[in-house]
Amino acid sequence: MSELSTSITLSGGAVIPRYGYGTFRIDDAEVAAAVTAALDTGYRLIDTAVGYQNEVGVGRAIGAAGLGREEIFLTSKVWDHGYDEVRRNLDESLERLGTDYLDLYLLHWPRPDVDKYVESWRALVDARSEGLIRSAGVSNFTIEHLARVEAETGAAPEVNQVELHPYFSQPELRAYHEEHGVVTESWGPLGLRAEGLFEEPAVQAVAKAQGRTPAQVVLRWNLQRGNVVIPKSVTPARIAENWEVLDFALTDDELASIDALDTGVRQGGDPLTVH
Ligand SMILES: NC(=O)c1ccc[n+]([C@@H]2O[C@H](COP(=O)([O-])OP(=O)(O)OC[C@H]3O[C@@H](n4cnc5c(N)ncnc54)[C@H](OP(=O)(O)O)[C@@H]3O)[C@@H](O)[C@H]2O)c1
């Protein structure tokens, strides 16, 4: 696959960029500079969350960017569950971000012990009908969680944002997404919570053959596997490095050599136990 679409139309009709910028673990004081660097570089999808406690700075950077609001695809996520709690959180996020709509709002974790994610999902569906959010999705949902939401509400999430990198490439979940019209968005796409991915012989070999860095190879693999990808960096040189993944392509053999690195082992939280 040499040509890569730069956006995907979600099942609700909104258009999401394939490539974006994550802001986890960037505090409110430094996030405005980081998001400004990302927007200046060309990123147009910005991913934040109530839990990141940086929505004010994200909103400030977007407001100062000199871009039309419609040029930016803004995602936030809600941690709390319950219909009213989600609606209240959404109002508060809009206020902090200084905008009157989100492009995508996600239930951050299913938190099955609380057992309110179906009710929370209804709140997102209603907010979408009212135009407060352009698209509605979830994050860290397993097949079981997705199936239950769709069975009980008749509406499938438009996006599921999950841990996804070569060491944990989630083939079964991606196949389910494809069957149900759910777009896969990859968090932790650089796979750096464990050691060693960039030093893997397969990654090194592709990097050498393509004349690219291991980070670029890993990000390009993720894009070519059909996912929306949102790397984070506060380092200007890396923000630029990570952006340079749209003008080359891995061959089928190169993609397969990286597929083979899947361990099936998560580096981040388990959706069944994160509370
Ligand atoms: N839904 C969820 O539960 C969830 C969970 C985690 C993350 N996310 C979202 O997904 C985004 C991405 O995930 P993530 O931040 O966990 O992980 P990531 O983007 O895979 O990795 C970020 C780490 O990689 C480093 N890095 C970035 N570019 C690099 C490069 N070219 N070479 C070497 N190191 C590089 C960064 O360092 P520096 O910043 O110091 O440069 C940072 O330590 C988050 O920011 C967030 O928006 C969502």
Layout of helices and strands, plus pairs?
Blueprint: E1 7-9, E2 15-17, E3 20-22, H1 28-41, E4 45-47, H2 55-63, E5 73-78, H3 83-97, E6 104-107, H4 117-129, E7 136-139, H5 143-153, E8 159-163, H6 171-180, E9 183-187, H7 201-210, H8 214-224, E10 228-229, H9 236-243, H10 252-259
The chain binds NADP nicotinamide-adenine-dinucleotide phosphate.
Site (Lowers pKa of active site Tyr): 77
Domain NADP-dependent oxidoreductase: 24-262
Family: Belongs to the aldo/keto reductase family.
Tell me the strand percentage band: 5-15%
Mean pLDDT: 97
CATH class of the domain at 7-194, anyone? Alpha Beta
Briefly note the CATH topology name of the domain at 7-194: TIM Barrel
Q: Mind telling me the CATH superfamily name of the domain at 7-194? A: NADP-dependent oxidoreductase domain
Q: For the CA atoms, what is the radius of gyration?
A: 18 Å
Q: Can you tell me the overall shape? A: globular
Oligomer: single chain
> Using DSSP, what is the number of strands?
10
> Count of helices?
10
Helix content bin: 25-40%
* Lateral arrangement of strands in the main beta sheet: 3-4-5-6-7-8-9-10
SSE-based structural type: alpha/beta
User: How widely separated are the two ends?
Assistant: 39 Å
Query: Low-confidence parts, pLDDT < 50 over ≥5 residues?
Result: none
Q: Which ligands, by name, code or SMILES, are bound?
A: NADP nicotinamide-adenine-dinucleotide phosphate
